[in-house]
Each structure stands twice: as C-alpha cells, then as structure tokens.
Records
---
Amino acid sequence: MIRIKYLFHSGFLIETEKYILVFDYFEDNCKKQSASDCGRLQPEDFPEDKTVIFFVSHAHYDHFDKEIFKLHSNAKYVISSDLKIAKSDNITRCAPYQEFEVEGIPVKTFGSTDEGLSYLLEVDGKKIFHAGDLNWWHWEGETDQEKEAAQKMFFKEIDILKGSEIDIAFFPVDPRLEDAYYYGGKYFIEEVCPKVFIPMHFQDCYYITRKFRAVMENIQNSTRVIEIEKRGQELDV
C-alpha cells in the first residue's frame, strides 16, 4: 500500500505500510482557510504506529521550512549538508553520492544542477526518487554558453542515474522555463524510465502538469505521468 499526497510545489507526503515520508515541505503564504487547501500538514497526517521521516533536498526557502521540526515529536530528519542545522541524534546530514540507512530505509543521494542533492530510496518495496532542484535549467536570457553549460551539467547527472530502477519519480516541470519547461522531465523519462513520473516545482501553475502529460503521451507510453490539480490532492499511483 502506498498513498501519496501533494502538499505544495515540491512537497509530498508518502504513506506506506510502515512509514510516513515527507519531502521538501514548506508553508507559503496561502490565504485559504482549509489546511488541506493550503497543503499544510496536520496531526492526523501522522498515524502513531508509523515511523515519520522528513527529507530536505536543499536550503532554498521553497524546499525547507523550520516548521518541520515542530510537526512531530519523534520524527527523523534527512537533510542536505548545505543547511546550517545544529547536530542532533534525530538528524542525518548528507552530501551527494552517499549511501546510508535511516530507520531501515536504504538511501542513496545523487547530485543536483542547483543547490543540494536528490534522493533515491527504497521503502516497503517501492523505489522512490525525489529530484530536489535537479533539472535542465534552460533559462531564456542566458547566453548560449550558459545554456550549454547547464545542459552538460544536467546530462552528466542523468548519466549517473542511468540504470537505477525507479518506481515513482518526483521531478521538476517548471513553467518559468517557458518553452523549455519539459526539457528536463522528457530527457529524464527517456533515459531513466521511471514507472511513474510526478511533476513538481510549479507552485500553483497546475496547467503545466496537464501540458507535460499531453507532451509525453504523444511520444512514449512506458512511463505513466500524473496530472496534479490542487493542493492536498491524493494521487492515484
């Protein structure tokens, strides 16, 4: 059994038989009244019989919120080493290209094309990848040399990931990249071939997940792309 709840931006809650995993949670300035409508975590999201682990890919404000240290009294934390956090027995600090185990979960870290790292872990029979800010950042307004360097950096990281078996991948599909919004996700799907691809890093621009799904349906059929429509949505995976 696996349940995935979209929180906001790159934030997700994953519930398995034994665990609650939360990736890149942060609270923005949502004006709505309902916690679910804002993607805020609540006490009922943490059943007492499950181990709770928060993962943070890097220190950017839209991936990390100090609120995570107040949400659960017995949680564990896996945090990128670029965050300046005091040492604690319940915190595992990590850098790219490491392998370790947290509460019985094997974890591998990979690189990023921005800050921090990305995660690949296996939990209750599912192999899950969270990209953090790993993406093909092709920005209009940059020079050809800068765009080429960004492409080479991304391809290098994907080469390292090739051959990894991934059941569920969370990966940026960012509308700020304009016509290049799909470059990274498309290349990742073609080269790594996850079974399920879940878009992220799009704030409230839900239309981009629909556009990306349509693009990929026209060119390949092996990876299932999920469309996201709202905060708090439970994803059918």
---
Amino acid sequence: VARSPGFVPEGAVFFVAELASGAPPAEYVAGKQGASRTQAVVHVAAGVAAALEHMHAVGLLHRDVKPANVRVDAGGRVKLLDLGLACVRTSVNDVSGTPHYMAPEAFMGTFDARTDLYALGALLYELWCGQPPFVAGDARALVRAISTAPLRSLRVCDPEAPASIERLVATLRKAA
C-alpha cells in the first residue's frame, strides 16, 4: 500500500487494481465456429469461475458479473473487472447489479455466492446467443421473466449449440 500525503486520509482502507485491457468476451468469441467457439466460451467461463472462486474463498461477492465486466487480454487471460458492487457479506435490502444478469433473489436484496454463479450462466448464455437469457420491455416484466419463465434453449438461437454448454448454463441458473 503506497502512501501519498494528503491524497488518502489517515487510516482509510482502499485497494489498487490493475488497469485491465483486452477484448470483451463477445469479441473474443466472435468469428469462431464449431469446437473452436465452444472452447472460447468454455475458456471465458473457466476464467470468470476461477476469479469468482478466489473472491468467494476470501468472503467477497462480486454482485455484477456481466459481459461488460470481463476482458480477455492478448495472452488469453480472462479478467473479471469492476469490484464497485463487491461486498464482504450477504447483503439484505440492497438491490444492486445489472438486472439482466441478476438472480431472482437478488431483486429482493439477498446475495450469496450462488447469485454470482447465476450471473455467470447469464453471461455464458449471452456469449452463445448474443443476448441475455431474458429480455423484456420494462423492468417489472424482466424481473417476472427472470423469476418465473423457463430458460429458452440455446438451440433456439443456434441449432448447433453443444449440449455441454446448454447443461452448463442450466446448472449455473439452478445454482441460485
């Protein structure tokens, strides 16, 4: 921790993060076909899952896993960004995050590691289909769809979607 007189109040807690560069995950996956596309999606999933595993092991929740918060650098390293909503404990009565990637219970202000895993599933769905798993005309309809609608098959947007990716997305959705 660096000290800079007058810049940080005495006793303040803060962290310094790397300025991450790289491609958004959709750009990383774009143009890949067949097994190569599946490998790219699995690579992103594994990288985000590893970051979440580390965060959860030290008691942190990300609470805003989404494509905009992921980058794949030139070396192929997957980076999970933006800890602005991260918290140390389960939060109640604090509805935070990006609605398209929030688990149903997150809309009631309850978060735990499973809500991050749900968001990872939504991210993977979007990587494969080009849109989040649930889209609606307004916030109320979106919450209703996320909470009650069945998950559309990846094969609706791509008849060639591998069963393994379909199972992974469904498993992550059920984690919440």
---
Amino acid sequence: MIENQHYTLVSLSNMILAFEGQESLLQVELDEFSCSLNKDVEKFLKEKAVIFDKQGWSRTHLLYTSYKKQKVLVGYFTLANKSFMVKNDAHISKGLKRRIAKFGQYNEDIKKYVVTAPLIGQLGKNDEYADLIKGDTLLKYACDEVRKVQEIVGGKFVYLECEDKECLREFYQSNGFVEFGCRELEADEKDDLSGSYLLQMLKYLK
C-alpha cells in the first residue's frame, strides 16, 4: 500500500486560519489522530499543538494521503527553535565534534558546547493508517523542512529527544542520528513517558 503513495504536507498554522471561527471542527480533525505507542505524541496534537502554534512556541505539520478516495491524516511532526548542549568529552566521533565546535559556542563554566538548532519535538504515525506511511518517510519530511529553514537562517544540525527504548534508538540511528546525551523528564512529562529521562540524538544535515 505504501508503494507509490503520495503525501501532502499541511501546516497547522494554515489550518488554524482556515478554521477561524470554527475551532471545534479543527479539533474534530485533530481528535481523529491516535498513537498507542506514544501517548505523549497523541496528547500533544490533541491538547497542545494549537496553543503552541498560536503562541509561536513551535510549528506542527500534518501529513495526509488518499485512502479509499478520502484524505486521511497519516502522521505529523512538530518543530521548534531550541538549543542543545554537548559535553566536551561526549562519546561521539571526532569529526562530529569538530562540526559541533564549528556551529556551537563553548561554555567554559559548564564544559559544554551550546548549539542552536531545530528540535523535532514530536513525531508520530496515526494508528488507524499506520500502514500507509513508513516512519523513515515521516522523519525525512521533518528533516527536509528543517533544511528549508536552514537555507534561510543557516545551521546544519537537527536534534530530537526520545525514550530510551532499543527500537527507537535503532530507528533513529538507521536514519543518521547519533546519541549525545540525555535529559531528565519534567514533571508534566512523567505521566505519558516511561523512565526518568529522554535520550538526546542529533544529526548533521548535509
């Protein structure tokens, strides 16, 4: 079913404008999304994505395709302008360290490089139509959007945070991401995520 599948990327910002005065209809659209593998991804789209977009904290993008002559939501991702920190002694390749040093600023007090880069804050497929898109494809769309931004403002890195699960590590590593650290969960994240921290992974976009 995935072979020769065509997708349409729609920004939530444009949807908010299109549904102005009819916010309940937009909510119905978002409520059709479910992600049993990551309830935090599902909760964000249903409860926070619109608010974050209106406040300018992040931008969410939804991916649609045709199924039985109808347009269906197969997945989404959210991007935000953030920064990450990498320890000087982090277990990453020398080549990657040189690139981080080139784009980041070294803070002598904390012995870390600080790099401003887009964060892929959310990434998930819709359970009902999960067979209509590969995770690799969804992630590629997210990275391609980051590249468009960096063509204007500069930069070469993108990063993300995920639960410390082997399947997730393998998925992101197979797509060129490298683990560089971890971040403790905040209080409002603990109900929907397992463990006490999130792995941090980055990619240099060529």
